[in-house]
Amino acid sequence: MSWKGGAHLDVLQDMNLTTIGRCAALAAALALSAAPAQADVAYEEMRACAQLGAKPPGSAAGHEQARRLERGFHAAGFTTARERFHVPLFQEERTQLTVAGASVPAESFAYGGTGRVRAGIVDVGVGRSADYAGKDVTGKIVLVDRDEAFHRTSQLAQVIARGGAAMLYVSGSPDNLIQEGTVRFAQLPPAPVPAVSVGAQDGAALRATLAANPGAEVALEVEASREDAVAANVIGVRRGTTHPGKVIVVGAHYDSWHAGAIDNCTGVGSLLSIADAVRGVPLAYTVVLAGWDAEEVGLTGSYDWVARHADRLGDVVANINLEMTAAETGAPALRFGTSAPKLTQVVQQAAAANGYVATDLPATVVRQISGGILPTDIQPFYSAGVQGFSTFTSTPFYHTPQDVPERVDAASLSRASAYLWDALLGLQSVAPEELAVRDVPSVTVRAPERAEAGAELAVEVELRSPTGAPVLGAPVRVLVDQNDHWARHEGVATELGGGRYRFVVPAGATDAGEARITATADTPAFIAEGYAAVELGGGVLLRRPDACDGARWFVEPVRGHVVEATVSAGKVRVVAGRLLLVDARAAGRDPVVLRVRARVGGRELVQSREYRVCAR
């Protein structure tokens, strides 16, 4: 849905109904709320989604699932659109793990570091802060166990903070299955150390070897590249009748590791069953249905939507996130979210009416036990101050080849889908002011609308509590991305006082095009985020940058006279002070960064350009 470009702006135009009309609309919705066919829709769509196999961003399988979502939304009377964005795609080329001279099957986590490590190993169990007591892991390979409550990104953060050379992760799945995933959001710079995953049985054998030979060294090597993929969020919009200017977003990610029947084809099935259920039913609020892409690589699709529509987030009153809505028979379920009393009441009533049982936890508690994140697409909405809740169902086959349709209990998926539909329906009778409860501070990011490519950029961040008071002493991280979600620079802002913080993007960090700025205030009590965008033009490189390319030779005309030019890999040659020849072949398919400093009209300017290979 494009709120900025003009398309679908009609969904936010005011429409008034009489009291009789509003009551009739809700009565019609109630009459259709228990349609038994929805269970069949959810299960069949789950199966169809899983049969496509792995659906990484930009893949043929992902494109086909996007088409299925688009067709389902359109058939239900939603105006549809795709919002495309670029994202780094981690391509594992080779992972080798050797313990006591024997090779052990292993796979690299996405966005972990690359290279070779040969070192001793230290076992820290789950790898929480307390698990490191009395253990020095400096320069060592750190062995950690999968723990559903403590996310692997947090485990790796501990390894890096304590000087570990690599992370070796023992999966929790049966049959020695290796669990995959990411250990760093794709839109951030990659991790500085490798992180690899092994099966549970191999992990036990490794521990036995270490017990017999405590000084044994482990050799680990990862070869991988990052390539440019084009992902797409699939958006459907239905205008509200009573509150057309207020929006409820219902979303599920459709990308997956392997078939992803549980994670997240169950969410896709529930989403399409909701779309089918609202066919012809008037809704009080404007409803946005979203099929998020690139969740598995860092919640990138939902973050793209939130940042793209940052100026209209005040109109979003609720977010319903459909993550792993069902799994095996009897699998424990979790529901977590924000604190609006009326939203909580509606959701709990919908669950009870459908016999859906889940443990309720506040989002703050989930963040604390997971190590600081909400590991699903509710996070960008939560951190922007939007009320909402997320589903989650536990499975030992998470992120393995055995996440297949046969493991999904049809009755559980039916209950979950019906409960979610009833929750959406119940929210139609809630007044907007009853959802206007803010859990996190507001983050306002101020940056120039336009600047010269490569110029130093001053960014100001203002942090205010939900009551409007300035927030003091919060660590504020600033991330600068270009080409949508390719990281160019990050750092920590300086506190100025009075809830104000300042960050300077150094000269030479950016290229021509749009720079997206995300400011994140992260404490144990909350995570809050704000966004800005800067259009960059001019600079010293005369050619506009390409999103990606298959070539590894580049010719760059330069404005002014080149003083210095360097590349992160390969070679660069300066011709007559005004032309650069970049040879990036030595980098293979990995990105290469050119940095050039030139004298233009009596002043020196600096600019950098990243050359990315298009994903295969």
UniProtKB/TrEMBL annotation:
Task: Indicate yes or no for the key word Signal.
Answer: yes
Q: Which UniProt keywords apply?
A: Signal
- Domain of life where this protein originates: Bacteria
The signal peptide here is: 1-39
Sequence ranges assigned to domain Peptidase M28 in this UniProt record: 233-421
InterPro entries, per this entry? PA_dom_sf, PA_domain, Peptidase_M28, Peptidase_M28B
PANTHER family annotated for this entry?
GLUTAMATE CARBOXYPEPTIDASE 2 HOMOLOG (PTHR10404:SF77), N-ACETYLATED-ALPHA-LINKED ACIDIC DIPEPTIDASE (PTHR10404)
Q: In its UniProt entry, what is this protein called? A: M28 family peptidase
Q: Species name for this entry?
A: Solirubrobacter deserti
Any one Pfam family here would be: Peptidase_M28
What's the source species' lineage? Answer: Bacteria, Bacillati, Actinomycetota, Thermoleophilia, Solirubrobacterales
Q: Where is the PA domain?
A: 129-206
